[in-house]
Amino acid sequence: MNHLTxxxxxxxxxxIQPYRYSSECLPLHLDPPLTPLSxxxxxxxxxxxxxxxxxxxxxPAHYYSEEEQRGISPPLEVSEGEEEFEDHSRSFFRKDxxxxxxxxxxxxxxxxxxxxxxxxxxxxxxxxxGIFQFSTKHKEALASHWGVQKGNRKKMTYQKMARxxxxxxxxxxxxxxxxxxxxxxxxxxLRNLYxxxxxx
Length: 200
What we know:
Mean pLDDT: 69
Radius of gyration: 52 Å
Number of strands: 4
């Protein structure tokens, strides 16, 4: 009897404990199937968050539009600048090519003296030596006529023309004489003038 009682006392403990553990283990085994259910409610929870994150993404879209505008506007500005530069370059080369075809200042003055034009503004002091003089009163009229002949937009003044005459002193076509408003052509210019007369 004592042996049976011991078995009975032991057996229920052994039966209860496995049952108790099995009952505790069941929720553990049931939890994993529930874990997707527990996660699935989180999907709507994350979905608004994702929507909320996607909703501010409209601001990057606005930022992209600004960036796109910035990306569009600089090329337009550059293209306009390039067009202006090209137009300026073309006009510069056109002016340069035209200036090459146009008469130079010393030739212009030489033609006036040779043809007897604008005698009130310029005349020979000593034609054989190539010395000529400008009029004090009418020198500005001659300078203005030279500016028109040259194709300048701004009005030519005698001061600007005299600066060009001084530059001829470096190249040798014309030199300044000590007398006021008086200059002298170089021998080479006079020689070319003489050859031009004899050829015609």
